[in-house]
Design brief:
The complex is a heterodimer of chains A (192) and B (364). By secondary structure, chain A is of the alpha+beta class. Chain A has one domain (3-185). Helix content of chain A is 31%, strand content 26%. Chain A is built from six helices and seven strands, in the order H-H-H-H-H-E-E-E-H-E-E-E-E. In chain A, helix 6 (117-124) links the parallel strand 3 and strand 4. In chain A, helix 2 (19-34) packs across helix 4. Chain A is globular, with a radius of gyration of 16 Å. Helix content of chain B is 50%, strand content 6%. Chain B has 16 helices and four strands. A four-stranded mixed beta sheet of chain B has the order 1-3-4-2, with helices on both faces. In chain B, helix 8 packs across helix 9 (223-238) and helix 12 (267-276) runs antiparallel to helix 13. Chain B is globular and about 70 Å long. The mean pLDDT of chain B is 87. Classes of the chains: A alpha+beta (192), B alpha+beta (364).
């Protein structure tokens, strides 16, 4: 299947086994950041805050899914998720169908900072060395309230260059009845 | 037992939120008769005192206590204009009753502090400079007087109680009134605080009332002016200008939320402080309030700091129960209150039976 053939449902259902981990990574990283000394938090602007939270997310993800030799099939190494680093860009390959990176999101799943060249290529779906090419490029992120101090939800967005094709929110494990779908489509609808 | 105290009839009636007419009807007497009892023109019989007590939920001894209620102006309270006179009367009556309880409790408890809440008259205040003392100067002096270090006031209730105040947690059954305070000779300064309010608001309210107690005990002014000064004092006390000024280099919700986490003061109070210090323009202030309104933060802000809990009153009740061996009935008798009232005012712990020591048993 080609990259652009994956629908939101295909990808989100495929990631179902991973949604708890992704949600936990984002929530734990943010709550860990909020436990910093309030005097230190005061000196951080939103960029510094996002950098700190990203470091915690990346470290946690790396602990859960360390780098593996990609030539070894996942079922043999016992890992379905593997870290790949492309010139400083850390992404995690999920089996052979998706690649995720961690970002801070706005309500629509967009991230705001100035992207590096490889980040642009990642979002555009351009081939990058070491990344399984047909796999869908996704961005896993956290969305905060207006004050930037309260966690609203974890989201998975599908960037297509500068545009977000779709955005889905992960329903936290605690709030999800058994057997219910673990994600909801939160893509902003265009006006009628 | 002393003579019948007609002031207590008014207190008891208002504490239950009844008008004279309603109580007279309940007692099947004329309103004129009740009015004469309340004004002290006539003294009722002991039988009537029992009937009155049963009707209002007080022991008859309540009406034979000494003392008189205090109304305005010794009270200062943060209230919203929607609060009705009847509701305010009920709250003021309850505050008077609680003041009488505290007076009883302090007879044996003995407050061990020689620190106090100063009264400062700005016209006579000898500050560091020759210019007329500002509210900022007064707030700084109080912080220095109590030897508070720079930075946020960690536990305002604790500091007030260490310095001769008693914080009385209250349930005003409305969110239209936040606090009342009272300074009466021979008593600690009392702060009655509605703990139903958010924690950041409670802190600001308490600092506001502290401002009244420092500034307006001797120097009474127009009500609005006193409220404005107390508000300014609260801001200056909780957010000292020399520390806040460099921190307010940015003025956006995100930064204010972080400042709130540090100072444990609401974003709204920080914005008002910034405006008073001239650090933001009127336009910035206007946009801030519009944004707060849109997000629903004007009623309750996110990121509430940890709630402060007063301890002195609890210690006083525990002292009577545990050290002095007062049973719940003894406590009710000395405070001239019913068990239900005591539970409502001081919590269930005040009535819990003493934990009995475990029985010794033979271990094989």
């Amino acid at each position: 299947m080609r990259d652009h053939d994956w629908t939101m449902a295909d990808l989100m259902d495929g990631l179902d086994f991973l949604l708890d981990d992704l949600d936990r990574i984002c929530r734990d990283a943010f709550s860990r950041y909020r436990r910093y000394d309030p005097g230190d938090l005061l000196e951080h602007d939103s960029r510094a805050a996002a950098a700190c939270v990203y470091s915690h997310m990346a470290a946690d993800a790396e602990r859960r899914w360390p780098a593996q030799n990609l030539t070894t099939p996942p079922e043999e190494v016992g890992a379905s998720v593997q870290l790949i680093e492309v010139r400083g860009l850390k992404v995690w390959a999920v089996r052979d169908f998706a690649i995720v990176r961690f970002k801070k999101h706005d309500e629509d799943g967009k991230s705001r900072n100035y992207p590096t060249k490889q980040a642009k290529d990642y979002d555009r779906g351009n081939p990058l060395p070491g990344l399984p090419y047909p796999a869908a490029r996704l961005s896993v992120g956290y969305y905060l309230d207006a004050t930037g101090t309260e966690f609203v939800r974890t989201q998975i967005a599908r960037p297509r260059g500068k545009v977000i094709e779709w955005c889905a929110a992960i329903v936290p494990h605690e709030g999800c009845p058994a057997g219910a779908k673990r994600w909801i489509d939160v893509t902003r609808q265009s006006g009628f | 037992m002393g003579p019948f105290n007609h002031y207590m009839v008014v207190l008891a009636r208002e504490s239950r939120g009844l008008t004279q007419d309603e109580l007279a009807e309940r007692l099947s007497i004329g309103q004129g008769t009740l009015s004469k009892y309340e004004t002290g023109i006539n003294a009722p019989s002991p039988d009537f005192a029992s009937l009155l007590g049963a009707s209002l939920g007080y022991p008859s001894a309540f009406f034979y206590q000494e003392g008189r209620p205090y109304g305005f102006p010794p009270f200062h309270y943060r209230k919203r204009k929607k609060l009705s006179a009847k509701a305010l009367g009920r709250i003021v009556a309850e505050m008077n009753i609680r003041r009488m309880h505290i007076k009883q409790l302090t007879i044996s408890f003995g407050l061990k502090t020689n620190r106090f809440i100063p009264e400062i008259n700005r016209d006579e205040f000898q500050g560091k400079s020759r210019r007329h003392a500002t509210i900022e100067d007064v707030a700084r002096s109080v912080r220095e007087f109590w030897m508070l270090p720079g930075g946020p006031v960690a536990n305002l209730m604790g500091i007030i109680e260490e310095n001769g105040g008693i914080v009385v947690p209250c349930d005003f059954q409305t969110d239209l009134i936040d606090a009342m305070s009272q300074r009466i000779d021979g008593m600690p300064v009392l702060f009655f605080v509605n703990l139903n309010s958010p924690a950041d608001r409670v802190r600001h309210t308490l600092a506001h009332e502290l401002g009244h107690m420092v500034l307006h005990t001797t120097d009474l002014k127009d009500d609005d002016e006193m409220e404005d000064e107390a508000d300014e004092f609260a801001g200056a006390f909780l957010l000292p200008a020399d520390e806040v000024r460099p921190q307010l280099r940015r003025f956006d919700l995100r930064h204010l939320a972080n400042m709130k986490g540090y100072w444990k003061v609401s974003m709204a109070a920080i914005a008002v402080r910034a405006q008073r210090l001239g650090l933001i323009t009127p336009y910035q202030s206007k946009m801030f309030w519009i944004e707060m309104g849109k997000l629903g933060y004007r009623k309750r802000e996110p990121n509430e700091p940890q709630r402060e809990v007063p301890s002195l009153l609890r210690q006083m009740v525990e002292f009577h129960r545990k050290k002095l061996g007062y049973s719940p009935a003894d406590l009710a008798k000395v405070l001239c209150a019913t068990s239900a009232d005591i539970e409502a005012m001081y919590g269930k712990a005040a009535l819990d039976p003493e934990p009995t020591r475990p029985q010794l048993r033979l271990v094989e």
